[in-house]
Amino acid sequence: MAEVTTSRPPEPAVPPTRPSRGRSWAGVAREYGAGILLVLLFAFNVAFTPNFLTVQSLVDVQLRQAAPVAIVALGMALVIAVAGIDLSVGSVMAIAGQVGALMLLAGAGPAVAVLLAVLAAAVCGLANGTLVVRFAVQPIIATLILFIAGRGIAQLLSGGQLIGFRDPSFQFLGLGRIAGIPMPVVLMAVVAAALWFVVRYTAYGRTLLATGGNPAAARLAGVRTGRVRMAAYVTCSTLAGLVGLVVIGITSASDANNVGLGVELDAIAAVAVSGTPLTGGRISVIGTLVGAVMLRLLQNTLVAQGAPREIAQIVTGVVIVIALFVQLRSR
Amino acid sequence: MSTRSLARLLQQQGALIALVALVVFGALRYGENFATGFNVQSVLADDAKYALVALGMCFVIMTGGIDLSVGSVVALGGVVAAQLSGAGLLPAMLAALAVGAAVGAVNGVLVARYRLAPFLVTLATLLVARGLALYLADARSAVADPSAGFTDFGAWRLFGVPVAFWLVAALFALGALALHSTDFGRNVLATGGNEEAARLMGLPVDRTKFAVYVLSGALAGIAGAFLAAQSASVDAAAGQGWELTAIAAVVVGGTLLTGGVGSVFGTLVGVLLLQLIFNLIVFENSRGGIQISSYWESVIRGAFLLAVVLLQVRLTRRGRTSAPA
């Protein structure tokens, strides 16, 4: 794979050194398909959904609803870039939420609660990374272990009880606003910007793509692929933990049975529709963001137009298959 | 016995050894209550549907693929069976089977013919099948019509064992036979072992892949029908997460996720083992003394999976130097 060594062209969605053989419709669709669909959905809503084009509807509803999945999806994109997958993100969200809520109840300050919760999530990522890197367990199975056991651990932390709490400064993560923008949206923007910077301008970003594109070559070139992959899993879990805190901050209660349920599928879907293959070596931060927002807007649009939720789900599935076909044709 | 051959024995028969050990433990600790016909019957009746899903998953994994859609197909098959239950047991079962096979055929075409990634294809059909189930059930649960004898199926017994389990046992026997003594079985293992080589040898790789996804879908559909018959109504949210417990059972049973190696019998043992944990927790609690929360169930299952995976790693060190899938 020649994708490893050369510098990246200006568009972030274009893979490094793919021989440009003109722009086939499929190539364009793969790079910009999710974006084009987002624009079309946006235009449709402007025309047909009352009050769509207001700051409140756009930022407080569409972006705020998309933000938690988008943040998880950004971490997932990192893991997928090193040819991995992380099924455990939902369970990690639940664990972080439980740790955070229990710390609050135990009288710890909100800062300590957040710190310990995120630390617990990072430890989960360390466990995933150890299995994948040190023991060479396939990522699906390695993270399946924590997917199964993690929710049980989260439930055991409180004996299965819902933990309610009231702490305005902790709940700022979910309900607060900075310059009028809801906190989840702010977090999404910050995480995306940081990740974009890391991928584009740091040595880690380059070794990340090299490790995913061709691990053997990367290792020969002196990249410590194990550390790179470990860092991806830890980052993914940490971000999931943060989102767990956002979610319980919004509801002011930690429910180990439901926090993060099914989020792994939404996150993987967001990465998939952004045209990123699961085989690694590529990451598109903006594409993942666009994918997550687009899938959310697609569902909201269908529901707003009176389609039942189940139809929205079917359409999402069909969009994923179309995205896969587009990837196939553009090869 | 050298440690190496002991490790091999543990990998291949570890699940069986653990299962026997747990049954003996249960029988000694909880005495007659544990070994009663009632407990055995309820455990086996309950396990039958999980076993069906795991059997299909086992074949898919042996070709090197994966099928995430089965949990949704269970719900879809269950809803269809419940809605057609007025027509009698056989038509309802067949309809569930046909619907499941249809979803499996879509998976199969996309994976085998168009070479799309199984993980994502079946993720998409997971969403579609769940949406269809919700749509058909009108986002509620589908209630079976008891008049035509559909719901009696759950109560049928043969030699004191639920008929559902006999059927499943027969299907596993057929599956083992197909794997070891037919061209189909050889094609499955060859495809999973080395797809390129299998293609070069002229084996029908695409047809084999298509077949395993249809099989997996059909079995998940029947599992849904079992669920409908046993519980008389199917929630459209039923079967959520079954795909991952099925994968866990297959892996615990000694099948490698890389494909090419697998055990049908081991898969059945894997299902029984993972389900038995829940049963033991119930008994431990009814005995008094220490109360074990049922939340331990998933933690213990995860621990079993972890132990098995680490054991497999010890035996297949070659995976260390190659890239992860």
TrEMBL record, chain A:
Record's subcellular location: Cell membrane
UniProt cross-references to PANTHER family, sorted A to Z: ABC TRANSPORTER PERMEASE PROTEIN YPHD-RELATED-RELATED (PTHR32196), GALACTOFURANOSE TRANSPORTER PERMEASE PROTEIN YTFT (PTHR32196:SF19)
Annotated membrane topology: Multi-pass membrane protein
GO molecular function, a single term: transmembrane transporter activity
Pfam families in the cross-refs: BPD_transp_2
Transmembrane region(s): 32-54, 66-96, 102-127, 139-158, 178-199, 230-251, 310-328
Name by which UniProt lists this protein: Monosaccharide ABC transporter membrane protein (CUT2 family)
Annotated InterPro entries: ABC_transp_permease
Keywords: Cell membrane, Membrane, Transmembrane, Transmembrane helix
Residues covered by region (Disordered): 1-24
Main location: membrane
The organism of origin for this protein: Pseudonocardia cypriaca
Domain of life: Bacteria
TrEMBL record, chain B:
InterPro entries found in the cross-reference section: ABC_transp_permease
Organism field: Pseudonocardia cypriaca
Protein name: Monosaccharide ABC transporter membrane protein (CUT2 family)
Membrane topology recorded in Swiss-Prot or TrEMBL: Multi-pass membrane protein
Keyword Transmembrane recorded: yes
One Pfam family this sequence matches: BPD_transp_2
UniProt-recorded Gene Ontology molecular function terms: transmembrane transporter activity
CDD domains for the chain: TM_PBP1_transp_AraH_like (cd06579)
Transmembrane segments: 12-30, 50-76, 88-110, 116-137, 158-179, 210-229, 264-283
Cellular compartments per GO CC: plasma membrane
Keyword set, alphabetical order: Cell membrane, Membrane, Transmembrane, Transmembrane helix
Intracellular or extracellular location(s): Cell membrane
